[in-house]
Queue: 3 jobs
Job 1
Amino acid sequence: MTTEGDHTIGRWLRDRASADPHRVAIDDRGVLVDYATLYARASSLADTLGGAGYGSGARICTVSGNSVDHVVAFFACALLGAAFVPLSWRLTPAELAELLRRSRADLVLIEEEHSSLASEALRLFASGASASTALPRCAPLGSVGIEQQAPRALFVRERRAPQSDDPLLVIYTSGSEAAPKGVVLTHASCFWNNLALSQAMPMSRDDVVLAILPQHHVAAWNVQPLLAWWVGATVVLERSFQPERALQLIQERRVTTVMGVPTQYRMLLDVPHLDRFDLSSLRRVVVGGATTPRDLAESWAARGVHLTQGYGLTEAAPNVLFLRPEDLPANPEAIGRPYPTVDTCIVDPDSGLVLEGAAAGELWVRGPSLFAGYLDDDEATERAMSDGWLRTGDLVARDAHGVHRVIDRLKNIYVSGGENVAPAEVEFALTAHPLVEEASVVAVPDPVWGERGFAFVVTREPLSADELLAFARTRIASFKLPARVEFVAELPRSTIEKVARTRLQDLAMKLCGVAEVGTQHNAQTLVDPAQNPKTKGKAHA
């Protein structure tokens, strides 16, 4: 089968298999797969699925870790015109069942390692489904499963050549702020995203990419791997992130480029005797998911590894802004300028006016890589868009040179005594203390001030809350200081190591509910509201 249209993704693999059939496309735990083999398997699976009635517009969910089999399924969907919907194996059975319900899948492909999770999720889905609900077909993933035989589709769909505006990749958001939503990325979305990436961070057939992010996340496809398969590079595919093993792979496979989140790069630095690993092959190290702390960037630069900061979100496929390594010293904690083909503007959240020059407000994004909408949720799509612009929900500041930095999520901003407080700013002040490893601040209700900050802090060595707050007071105004501090062993994480703020919010609320006034309960009331002269006499939010 062949693909048509300028922007379809399946043709990338077809063209590369023709030009470089024997080049290694994937190194999956030492098993090498060349481009000819990868295309042959994907094309054969597309034919198998098409013959079973899964045509254009089919939704094919997966429950799988990173693997060649998973990549084969992705490209088969690209060649078929079906939507590939990778679901997270990190979810509980109940959470996974909910996503299966929301996705209205035609077929679920299940990796053996996750068969128990998937089976329980399907059981829960079936038990809660109405009599009219169609349950998806299921099959094992891989060469001895779906690639051998596909169950007949319940609803037979027409098979036609894929088009640029066909849904290709549906990624569910983490749900840290609300119920998860399926972000629909078309072939064109992925094409333009990777074209912009190739211009901002060029890649050649001689590159070796280390892929360490889980493939239920958009960056595991659209930040490096898909571009690598477009240009004929090799992707070293890892099942999970193990710091010492990652360093060994960089050394042994002569990895040239990798993308990760700040937590992962911090964990790599913490590997004992780091200097025993040869990292000289690295040419581009990309950071996403959060802003790079200055000390982390400086620690890697001292080892000759310079970090490239990026910013994006799933709805933008995901790339929006990037900062070249040479710009980092003059712009610490910055996230950079727009990618090629991406337009941005800053909008005042209160007035809705577009702000010019140096300004702070909500970041809006426009361009051909934007998503086609949320799966089966027109209302949510309409809320996210404004006249072709995506409202990111991120509060950013842009300097006179067009360089952006993130202030916080708009929905994370809370109002204390009439003053807006950005948790990210408070977290930055807390983590500046040499004994603090991480900090996360959430808001809790306060009968006097409306809302107050509650800080969860991870320290390298014992530290008193009084000492920490005294330190932070020299960096931020008193009204921004958290009213309570809870020292914890670690912060809970969600997708790609992002802090799970919803879980921290629930814990903070619980602690505030059980702790009586004047008691500490491990969380200490430390800030006297009367110390804040800016809020005296003001109406409370």
Note: The CA atoms of residues 272 and 444 lie 39 Å apart.
Job 2
Amino acid sequence: MLQTRSARAGAVALAACALLSPGARLAAQTAPAAEARAARAFDEAHKEGPLALHAFLYRMPKGADLHMHLSGAVYAETFIREAGEDGICVSAAKLSMDSDHHAPGCPAGETPASAIPDDQHLYDALIDAMSMRSFVSVTGESGHDHFFDTFDRFGDDKRFAGEWLDEVAARAEAQNEQYLEPMVTPTYKAAAAAGYRIGWSDDLASIRQQLLADPGFQANIAADRDEYAEILRQRTSIEHCGQPNAAPACSVAVRFLYQVLRGFPPQQVYAQTLLGFEVASADPDVVGINFVMPEDGYISMRDYRLQMHMLDYLHGVYPQVHISLHAGELAPGMVPPEGLTFHIRSAVEQGHAERIGHGVDVMYETRLWELMKEMADRHVMVEINLTSNDVILNVKGDKHPFMLYRKMGVPVALSTDDEGVSRIDLTHEYVRAAVTYPLSYHDFKLMVRTSIEHSFLPGASLWVRVTPEKLETPVSVCRGQLGAEQPSGACGALVHSSEKAQQEWELERRFHLFEASF
């Protein structure tokens, strides 16, 4: 008697399963039923409302947060405490730190930060000024302006950056995250000074050679590598990583994105961008670069195409350096209509962006459907920041292109942007997505996989990439093994040779444990 197609497939699957280790065999046999139980639990939580969803999604593996600014991820309470420990003064009128003055020598109208907790009204006012807590838009101050003004209020004192990273990693570990790519701007003054001395011209190759020959620029490369290393050293020390009393946060892997400030003259932006490419080429802890500062700023808009031209040239020189770009963090009315028509396309086609941060104005791009198809075909991922897009741009719900990206097959993953400023965490973004959009448990699971797949970690992937991207079929040597404690055979060799595959393997192990709990 001839077997049916499904029966033959089942027999093949059973035969393949028999060749696996006992742990891998158990994982393969129980995975579909366990995922179905988790999906039913998600649906029940959805019926019960946001609180039940939070309880479910807080425990769920969430992979990576790929779009986060380290200083913006820190809560205001931490900055106030650190300022007090450092003896910094605080301006009560400006509601900002004054790092130029220290207690007891605070000028008139300023208070030692150490005394701020004794004045609840000032303490609350400072937190509100340094975040979006209690913010209500009024004439003269938009959510956009209040959000970006917070960064000037708390400053960016890198001496505490290891503490910031510990705070962010601990929060991530508690929510079952496993990998972070925080954006950090290390010192760039020597490089910028060299850029101004050399001056600006259209000859990018010549300027690059002159910058690389500058002793100050070369010293800046070494200084930046030391700065990143010191952040990691402090974090390791605080968390006792590698010691018997290691903190759980040690399990969260971290790599950095070099953050370039786009709102300055071209000679400075180019010098800092080149510095970023040089550091990322030499330092395995720095896996890529990104451009930051408000995209609607005067220089950001004026020089947008020029900055993409810089990236186009430098990508040709340093093709191994990954690029993620803030692009399309704009909404109608913020800039003239023509300003909404080209930023994302330019970032993808000229800036060589492998990931797009925000991408909110995509529906105003010229030939928008062609652009989204191109992004899907090229597997350009969009980092979705729902709360940030709401409070800065007033874009939310069906005004947000999140679901249109998904419909067009563009890879997407949820991220936080600045969780300290927004007073959120990654679970909050998952709950917001679940409440706002018709997403299933499987949809969330695929977005979580996407976050690791599109990390800039080196090495091969565990997934077969198809178009549109699904991430449902493992590479042949690992089929039937995902979810087990350890890979075996050729799959083990692949995993051990690839940092990305190691994180993907760990994610599937976590999903196996999570789904088995239902």
Note: Residues 289 and 328 are 17 Å apart (CA to CA).
Job 3
Amino acid sequence: MSHFILEIGTEELPARFLSSVEKELVTRFSEKLDELKLSYKSIESHSTPRRCILHIYDLEKIQEKHEEIAMGPSVNIAYGADGNLTKAGEGFVRGQKASLDDIFKTSNEKGEYIAVRKQVGGKMATEVLAEICPLIINALPFPKRMRWGKESFAYARPLHWIVAMLDDEPIKFTVGKIESSTQTFGHRIHGIGPFNVKHADELETLLFEKSQIVCDAKKRRAIIIQDSDKAAHELQSDASIIWNERLLDEVQGLVEKPVPLIGNFENDFLELPKEVLLTSMEHHQKCFGLEDANKALLPKFLTVLNIEPESREVVREGWERVLRARLEDARFYWKEDLKDGFSQWLEMLDKVIFLGPLGSMGDKSRRLEKLCGWLAEKIDLKSKTKLDNAIELAQRAGRFSKADLMSKMVGEFDTLQGIMGGIYAQKDGFEAPYTTALREQYLPTGPESMLPSNDLGAILSISDKVDTLIGCFGLGNIPTGTADPYALRRAALGISRILIEYGYQISLSELFEKAYSFYSPEIKWKFKKEETLEKVSEFCAARLKNLFVGEGSETLVAEAIMSAKDKGKLESDMIWETAQRLNALKEAMTQADFADNAQALKRITNILAKSTSTLADSFSESLFEADCEHALGKSIKEFATEFDKHWNNHAYNQVMPLMNKVLPQLEAFFEGVMIMAEDEKVRQNRMNMLSILMTRMGKLADFAVLQM
């Protein structure tokens, strides 16, 4: 067993490229080695801005031998009328380096063909690796590729060196004009090299010893956190770094030798909101803020260098000077915005296009004003918030929600949209929940993102997302494949999450209908109203199913819930109720009696599918011919009463256990009578009994979908 290592040395790669290159190297090498039957124990990859490294552990030195069947032309083409091989047949034999004795005939669904058996494999691992390495390196995907000099070879950044070794043996190949070797290079400042690698096991150790390069991104990240936290505590006992996980991922991808450095800025800048200061640090300078035990921002920042400077003080002063200029800009925007205010911004919204034919952002905010007001009444926001002016606050939140897009601060830092609206509203004297709603209107931003923290923010978020969905679908801007420029999948997911978590019993079709009604009748839609609403509903249903599956539900269970109907209408139109039904079904499926109940319901579904008449929600005892019918009729009446009570109280977990009381009588009924009786009235009566049971249980789930 051997250790293979591949190092691809380049100019500095963008940090966002690194993780994808690591994954691609592992995936492509594992797939190729599996295809070529060259076994190994494990594969892993590491990266820094200047290198991507692949390790293959316990690699077999010789490729496994195996037999393959090479298919040739059909028998009709391979042989002539005289029974001898045609030119096509001879060409196939010659191409396979076989003899006439090696030919045999084989058949498949398309016909009969000639074929030969071949022994393949048995190559040395060094030979296999020399063949596949340049192919994989050439095929690595990047968002952007470049060529340099007169090179025809394209890569993310210019290549400088390639190390390829199987234990202590070099693997020779060429990519572009770079020949692989055993020679690596270190840090640009701290030990540039070159350094000769004697064994694959030594590469990363050598780079650390010679240049303090940490090749493993996870280790680099851990070092940054550990050393930075230590520096913060030494500076002030209760000081801590405000770690932005996304920025931390980027920063660890910008350095090979992480060196944390803490700098300072003037106390005067603390007059700016914390969010503004942090955004300015993070966005422009890739720096982190510091806070004390009370979460108050400290006039300090953390940066991570890629060198150990001769004078930390000189470097610190340089960073402080640059950051000071950025913070001065932020302070200017802050003061200018305080002079302008919401009234001026609202007027400016009418001059900003929302989306093509859908009018301006001012038009959108007026639609949100109406939709928020309607939703506030729908969920009884006044009772929930105990605020007499709850409806007016909801309407105001909708109208003013997009005003901060016109502020200078959001113009500079677009990630602060909504947040700045809440901050400026607080400055104007408004209190929560209104200011909080403005801040959180774009939540959730993904499947793991936080939700708005109050009802006003929840209805503002729903209104914004629904308005965008209706507008985009009406114009035909529907996501296809991975393309989703208006983040409509995220919007649909966010609506579902809010409705579920807040327990809002709102019909999606009613919500979409209302949102559509607030659009101007002068808009030239691509689709008619009914088609638009249908497409939006189908889209949101698909996202809801994905949400359920993503949270751990089995696909068929989610489908059974989503397919449930009440009087022909999908029950999934009510999102909160759908989630409750899913939980009830999953709970029921853990019980020992579930399989028998589900099988009985599936049987009933198949029986009722044969009905040629309209089924009724009642039956006549006078048409009963057997004791088992009387017993089942009594049981179904009791079942229907109990079911309706639990269903109307949304006690969905109580309805499946009701089947246990019906099942014995149902089984006796199946055994005791012929449901499809010759007498039409008797047959219809028996099917009506089953329909009473099934129309109710069918509201819980479509049991025909489940595999029992």
Note: The mean pLDDT is 93.
